Description:
Structural class: mainly beta
CATH superfamily: Alpha carbonic anhydrase
CATH class: Alpha Beta
Bound molecules: zinc ion
Low-confidence stretches: none
Largest sheet: 14 strands, mixed
Helix content: under 10%
Number of helices: 3
Distance between the termini: 42 Å
Shape: globular
Strand content: 35-45%
CATH architecture: Roll
Mean pLDDT: 96
Number of strands: 16
CATH topology: Carbonic Anhydrase II
Amino acid sequence: MTRIWSYTGENGPEFWPELSQEFYEAAQFPLQSPISLSYEETQPLYKNLTFHYEKQTFSIKNVNDTIHFEPVNTISFVDFLHDRYYLTDIHFHMPSEHIIANEQTSLEFHLVHKNNYGDPLVCAVLFYLTKEPAPSWAEDNNELLFDPSLFLPMNASYFHYEGSLTTPPTDGPVKWFVFDQKNPMSSSLMERFKTDLLPNNRPLQDKKQRLIYYKK
Ligand SMILES: [Zn+2]
């Protein structure tokens, strides 16, 4: 299927709900993403998100003109409230979709997970581009072998809130975990995975008094 939506023009984000019945229905979910996050408006999160990531094979795919790293096997997962959410997809947005303390960065990676019921949980990590070498991973025939922990910051503090997917259909609820440590990423690596769709950040959505948590 060809992509009918875009980030600019008459198929841009403000018109996504008009492009199909499916997009319209998804847009009715009231708590949309991304949002701007600030420390002052948070309350403490007492529940832990724990990571059980392992080195595994990912296939490089172009879906809707965006590069995705898709796990070949269901191995890596996170645990939240005694529920396992398996890693299903890694992709990125340039520039970042979430804003933290009024700061937008050049790049945001999304690590998408789903539990056995298909409920989504997304970890977002913001990056700035550097001239550092690319992460060391093995590559063979459009497949990559790496530990997805390489996308996680050293400092595991994060915002947590309920939102939606940021590409159509923008369904919810999605459990968002947005890490607040900004991290370096090789600009040469990102140059390689860039597509014509960039910039690909959905504009900020209304927070609508939703609860936003912060875990130190
Ligand atoms: Zn995304």
